Backbone:
């Protein structure tokens, strides 16, 4: 009897193998592969590693709730190592070789620009979770970070207001690549529209990984003697650590020359003595310090996950804006796949329009029906001594993104795909 049963089982396995099915392929059929494309080494690792980790937390959370359309999510992680051309190679690997259904990744705009041709050619999906310069709208990308009108413009308006100190002169300080240069082009035109002259705008760029800010900070102090001055920082990656340390060394306080940063949040401040930086600003769509039940749950889950997985420095684990944007994006993708009943790119794109999600930022936010951007609230926060932020200004509610800035000529009427 046992021999007959064994023969039947052997025959069944043989037939399945001849048909191209194995136990492994059965397992693969029960999962949906999700690509994670973030720098885990190099200058951007300081910012991007936490996005990989929060993506894994979200995948675990979704799987614990039954997965997506009855299938578990399976993460495929690659490290493009802050090497922009390598991002394109790794994206192609994820889509072509690993057969992922979607990719969550990139931080810098130069990395996003590098992978765009791959996603268009292979008709795959990228969810991009970081604030950026706009001037782009791609069918194969969903932008869950801020467009300039959801971060940069409100921040500068605040600095010019009475509450923000009434700045008249501006230092545009950034890392030398597309995001800072395009954002500052927009900001320069915006400042012109407010009557600010070029002589009252100083524009300075440093390479990725730059560490010597002594001369730059000294020049900022000198420039500020010409009138009430503010610094708009689009420095990215680990260069933020020596920049903020030099601010402290030079005694450049927020009451003298406030700095508002667009790429510095709780994660980047973990490696800095924040006591000399109290009062300097950041503009985001989310802060860990926001008080609402959804955020309290999100923060608690992240801290517990960091401890359970023994992540580096887990005792001081923090959430930040791009982490929240990653979390929101993954859940919206899940909802779209379930609505479409498929991971097919075109079907998911159609189902993403109008998706809503109760976000840790305190609002039920919506994916725009035509421009692939989220409607997001804006918050401006002051750095506190503990590295958290005290919100000093906020929008009345979510703001619709303008991917094409009205301050750039030729953009009139451009909004959707």
Residues:
């Amino acid at each position: 009897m046992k021999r007959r049963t064994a023969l039947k089982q052997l025959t069944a396995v043989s037939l399945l193998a001849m048909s191209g099915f194995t136990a492994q392929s059965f397992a693969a059929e029960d999962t949906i592969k999700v690509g994670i494309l973030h720098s885990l080494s190099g200058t951007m690792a300081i910012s991007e590693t936490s996005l990989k980790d929060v993506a894994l937390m979200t995948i675990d959370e979704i799987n614990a709730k039954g997965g997506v359309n009855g299938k578990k999510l399976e993460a495929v992680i690659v490290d493009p190592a802050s090497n922009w051309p390598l991002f394109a190679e790794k994206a192609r690997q994820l889509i072509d070789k690993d057969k992922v259904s979607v990719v969550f990744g990139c931080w810098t705009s130069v990395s996003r620009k590098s992978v765009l041709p791959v996603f268009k050619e292979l008709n795959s999906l990228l969810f991009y979770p970081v604030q950026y310069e706009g001037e782009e709208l791609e069918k194969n990308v969903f932008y869950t970070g801020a467009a300039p009108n959801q971060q940069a413009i409100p921040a500068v308006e605040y600095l010019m207001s009475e509450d923000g100190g009434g700045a008249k002169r501006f230092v545009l300080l950034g890392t030398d690549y597309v995001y800072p240069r395009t954002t500052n082009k927009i900001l320069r035109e915006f400042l012109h529209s407010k009557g600010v002259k070029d002589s009252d705008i100083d524009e300075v760029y440093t390479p990725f990984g730059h560490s010597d800010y002594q001369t730059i900070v000294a020049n900022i102090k000198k420039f500020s003697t010409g009138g009430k001055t503010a610094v708009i920082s689009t420095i990215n990656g680990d260069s933020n650590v020596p920049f903020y340390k030099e601010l402290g060394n030079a005694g450049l306080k927020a009451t003298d020359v406030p700095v508002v940063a667009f790429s510095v949040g709780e994660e980047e401040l973990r490696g800095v003595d924040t006591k000399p930086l109290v009062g300097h600003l950041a503009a985001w769509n989310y802060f860990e310090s926001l008080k609402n039940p959804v955020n309290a749950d999100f923060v608690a889950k992240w801290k517990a996950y960091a401890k359970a997985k023994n992540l580096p420095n887990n005792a001081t684990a923090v959430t930040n804006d791009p982490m929240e944007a990653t979390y929101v994006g993954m859940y919206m993708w899940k909802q779209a796949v379930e609505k479409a009943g498929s991971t097919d790119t075109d079907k998911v794109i159609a189902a993403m329009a109008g998706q809503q999600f109760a976000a840790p930022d305190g609002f039920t936010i919506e994916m725009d029906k035509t421009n692939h951007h989220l409607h997001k609230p804006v918050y401006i926060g002051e750095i506190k001594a503990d590295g958290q932020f005290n919100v000093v200004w906020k929008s009345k509610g979510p703001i619709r993104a303008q991917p094409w800035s009205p301050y750039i000529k030729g953009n009139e009427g451009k909004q959707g795909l």
Summary: The longest helix spans residues 45-64. Residues 149-284 form a domain with the Rossmann fold fold (CATH 3.40.50.2300). The CA atoms of residues 251 and 276 lie 8 Å apart.
